[in-house]
Design brief:
Structural class: mainly alpha
Distance between the termini: 20 Å
Number of helices: 10
Order of helices and strands: HEHHEEHHHHHHH
Helix content: 55-70%
Number of domains: 1
Strand content: 5-15%
Amino acid sequence: MHPRSDALLAEIRAEFPAFELLHKKGSPFQRAIHIALAIVTFGGQRVYMTGYYTAMFGKLWVPESWEALRDLDRYVLLCHERVHLRQRRRMGDVQMTFVYLLPFFPLFLAYGRARIEWEAYTETLRATAEVYDLQTAERLRDTIVRRFVGGDYGWMWPFPRTIHRWFDEAIAQIALVGAPSDIAESRR
């Protein structure tokens, strides 16, 4: 049973009527992306098919691990991906693709991608604090910093101090909103 994430999926479908949840397994397009990412990141991104959830063109592509996710973890993930869906609506497919891939470089210094992901990971932290607590959100620091500075996203922003500063600011802002129980109440 996934009552909280199913309710959020219903909200997402109401907000984005063309939204679909699709499985990566068996998709030649997703397999091609996986191979291309493994090549261009020199093996830095080898788990695209099995460990990453991908919002693309108004759809959410999920790996097989989707089936094993607990309700609250699905909820946090969907909060993150809804940010990407809203970014797509705001920018459109062409502009979002351009911003995600080019400014400044596709690898090693991808400021556009970093900005897109900062917004979504801020929501990951907020949702984690909401359903678990602020300390659990704070424990995501190492994983998130590693994603920004490592091969997972093509070394999109290889400046750990910048990512730590963003992380500190995001956590401080979430803490200002109120205790996680207050956050949860305000979302109902």
